[in-house]
Amino acid sequence: MKYFDYAATTPPDSDVVRTMAEIMEAHYGNPSSIHGYGERADQLLRRARSGCAAAIGVKPEEIVFTSGATESNNLAIKGAALRYQSRGKHIISTATEHASVYESFLQLQQWGWEVTWVPVDSDGRVSAQQIMDSLRPDTVLVSLMHVNNETGVIQPVAEIGNRLKREAPRILFHVDGVQGFGKLEAKPASWGADLYSLSAHKIRGPKGAGLLYVRNGVELTPLLSGGSQEQGMRAGTENVPLLVGMAKAMRLAEERQLDFARRTTVLRDRIMETIETIPGLVLNSRKDGAPHIIHFSYPGMKAEVALHTLEQLGITVSTQSACSSRSAEPSRVLLAMGRDAANAAGGLRISLGDEHTEEDVALLEQALHQMVAQLRPLERRM
Ligand code: PMP
């Protein structure tokens, strides 16, 4: 079985696993305790914080550790909206964001905030000008993803962040960086981002660990009440082993980013070219997208049927994003890109990791041809 679903999650790096296991057994102190066990754990936590900060070019005190990017996105969006509601209650995003951003916006809408959903073009890209045109005097927050988790499209976050800083410096800019870090250059402070979310398990770290970069001076209303951990922004005992694991995974991902992009771009381009030659399949991603994601549709075929056929052929891919793939709805992202329901219901994502080789890709290509040959008689009946 070949795994091509790295955008859903990655196999953890063995060194990362070893480090986490050692810490879990040997350094179980609570980092808030003032005795020796606590101090040792706190030292490890401080080192992890510095490592994570260095990997994205920010200061250690600007890192808030969380349980993953779902929490980081919720904290960034709701925490900023609640904290700065006296400035206004208008917030801006797109319909192609990850569920943890999209649903946070919908919840704020229910609580009385006004949302502008900025449209995307047929590639799923938002324009900086359209974001700027949607600003109002009562706008408090713009939230945008760096790389789309379904299609791999890259949003112009640096252009938007820098224009916001120049033209509307009081408006906060949040970037969901989950699918971009380790694949593209990711320096949120240089983009003018005030808030930036990451998740460890997309970069060969553990599940259940993430962070939110909170630019110095930005305040958030905490979503979890309790102790004063994480500068009062996120109560709860820090998960020291997982956070040390995340710091290590971030360092490795950052060091290997250029090499990762170079290797996967070659494989991605080859897979895209193959998909374009198979009658019945429609490519939805482009070569100027992220190096690790290829999205295509098989209109007239339920994505689920195609996925299970590929699985029987030894290839694991994904329908939509993992968080939404059990939903029967067509992809919200593809609908926002103007695709019809048949295209949006037949969407499949292939995502690559650092371990993939030309041989793996040859097996994938063979399986794609075979899948279509097998399913062709069923096409019209779906
Ligand atoms: N944002 C994006 C773009 C994602 O791809 C994901 C993972 N599906 C998340 C946020 C949520 O991350 P986590 O799994 O750490 O909650």
From TrEMBL:
Its cofactor is pyridoxal 5'-phosphate. The keyword Protein transport does not apply. InterPro entries: Aminotrans_V_dom (IPR000192), Cysteine_dSase (IPR016454), PyrdxlP-dep_Trfase (IPR015424), PyrdxlP-dep_Trfase_major (IPR015421), PyrdxlP-dep_Trfase_small (IPR015422). Keywords: Pyridoxal phosphate. Residues 3-364 form the Aminotransferase class V domain. The keyword Cytoplasm does not apply. This is Cysteine desulfurase. It comes from Paenibacillus xylanilyticus. The lineage of its organism: Bacteria, Bacillati, Bacillota, Bacilli, Bacillales.
